[in-house]
Amino acid sequence: MSAGDILLRGRGITRRWGGLVALNGVSLELQRGSVHAVIGTNGAGKSTLINILSGEVAPSEGQVELLGQDVTRWTQPRRARAGLGRSYQRNTIFPSFTVLENCRVAAQARTPRPWRWWQDAARCEVSVPAARAAAARAGLEDFMAQPAGLLSHGQKRQLELAMCLATEPEVLLLDEPLAGMGAEETERMLELLHELKPRHAILLVEHDMDAVFRVADCITVMVNGAVIASGTPAFVRSSAEVRTAYLGEH
Amino acid sequence: MNPAISSKAIFVIAVFGLLAAYPLVAGNFGIDLVNKIMIFAVFALSLELLVGGAGLVCFGHAAFFGIGAYVAVLLSPPDGPASLLLLLPAAMLAAAAYAMAVGALSLRTKGVYFIMVTLAFAQMAYYVVHDTPLGGGTDGIYLTMKPVLGELLDLDRPITLYLFTLATLVLVFGFLAMLSRSRFGRALAGIRINEQRMRATGFATYPYKLAAFTISGAIAGLAGFLFAVKDGFVNPELMSWHFSGAVLIMIILGGIGHLRGALIGAFAFALLQEFFKSEAIFGAFSKHWNLGLGITIIASVALLPRGLVGVPGQWKDRLVGRASRRAETAEVQR
Lengths: 250, 334
Hints:
Strand content of chain B: under 5%
Order of helices and strands of chain A: EEEHEEHEHHHEHEHEEHH
Number of helices of chain A: 9
Shape of chain B: globular
Number of domains of chain A: 2
Number of helices of chain B: 13
CATH class of the largest domain in chain A: Alpha Beta
Strand content of chain A: 25-35%
Order of helices and strands of chain B: HHHHHEEEHHHEHHHHH
Number of strands of chain A: 10
Structural class of chain B: mainly alpha
Helix content of chain A: 25-40%
CATH architecture of the largest domain in chain A: 3-Layer(aba) Sandwich
Mean pLDDT of chain B: 91
Oligomer: heterodimer
Low-confidence stretches of chain B: none
Distance between the termini of chain B: 43 Å
Largest sheet of chain A: 6 strands, mixed
CATH superfamily of the largest domain in chain A: P-loop containing nucleotide triphosphate hydrolases
């Protein structure tokens, strides 16, 4: 597969909670080799969209296609094993595990072998190297043995992404990876996204507009559960509708 | 090797060594009591796998213990001893089968609902033996002949039975220690901390939880089997919710999240019970032993949030806290 292939596609995704329409007919495509940012105000439906694409929440209507297959009815673990990785807005690391063990458990999802009870997981010849590589990639090579709960906020965000990378996904759905990060940490994370881009299709939900316009190849703007504009950063920046609805200019 | 790990290992090996040496100095009463406590420890370890390992609080664990015990009695032929090699696996399989059925349904719920559903299934099993003639009803039934293993093991001799229980305890402890380090055990730990994250990572968590529940039921059945063989008698009380509660208290008292906790908790609980039941110490008040035991448990849970296993750590924290406070005061005064 080469750059430009569509790895994940959502078609007409609608989600209703009782009378409330959280998402209204949202369609989008994620290509390998590009970062697709989704921006919008709080409550615009960005997190619901990630939850539906990753299989955590079922859509009321619409389809999700992963690597050319209709996965709408697949469970979340099955989608994850097929190459769909996600990170959470809130830290969901395992605080009592070391950094390495956090990544190792995640890597283990690829080769679970749960019945080999006699094998020490810490010596697993598959998951340990994968975990080391993922942690190093996210810039945590000096903290492998540290309990994850003792990391700084920014490092926890890096670990969140490292755990996602440890499963070797093709598609990354990142829910506000930059939230609460300092300038230097943001810089490093953007660099990492840039490195990951050629081999992955990345969906980025983010509030930091400077970062979004720097890193994104394509931006989708959502308001009240619907897409009001989608296109290149230059197009979105110049769209009158987006300016009034979201960027706060008149 | 990590010094913290090796000190834990030394503690466990020392406990097992003392238990092995104990019959040399003890009389029949002592051997029978410690034998009973070791059976409780096996039972507590089975629950620790669920509560400490997977974060699943089962409040119906006595059902699996009771099924193991009843199967041991009901499958023994009336006219001669059963073979240990058939009876023991049968008891474990029966308990595991019920655990798998209960787990398959109850694991679809979470939290308080899970606790209540496991309790309900245990009560069902309780009323089956309590209200039907199947297992002798409320009177219970006797095991006339203890199972044998050819000429090798004579479980009628208290000392042989004691050593058999000890060997079982060591094996169960070793098995669970191995399990908790394996990929299966690590995945269970992940599920305990954040099941949603594990699903997002690619783990189908339900089969993991069901496997843990079934293994736990099988080990509880093993403990029940030992209990029936030791006492030669079973009655419905073995499946009552009081007993499910007691084993939960054992692991809470000992410290959840540590296999040692289950071991220590079983001993602490049973010895406290003996202490408050002792007429020599409490005289007529010993009839109300439940009161003394209850107050002690409440006090220890309030004062030792990490259980007996956590006591050294708690002291260390307190000393460090005091030292750092003193340093702060010194700083301020300067």
